Sequence to fold (128 residues):
Amino acid sequence: MAKVKELAKSTDLQGKIVIDPTNHFTPDHQVEDLGGLASSEVIQGYFPGARLVKAFNTLVNKDLAEDPVVGKGHRVLFISGDGREAKAKVSEIISAIGYTPIDLGSLAVGSKYQQAKGVFSAVNLIKL
Fold:
């Protein structure tokens, strides 16, 4: 997350949709303690005024590299965010590349299910 914070210092994304694919690991691969905040709430603080949507962080790299279409189903990608329009746009992108988006709600609630150690972390689901 430190790299994202550095990026945010040199980037103005006011009003833009920002997709947060991060997970809150320390350099030694431990889960960072965020004091009860969702990792996306921390990231949102780095980009004030941006419309943040948490997505693309629950599948491990090997699963993301696989075809999103499996038999008659599609792999699931979860999203969370506070803006309905931003989530709709990210859902369109996810659908366009062959995945099925599932909205888990707000950043404060839904993204906790997605982040490292969350209920849906590394879960590879197929929607039929």
Q: What stands out?
A: The longest strand covers residues 73-81.
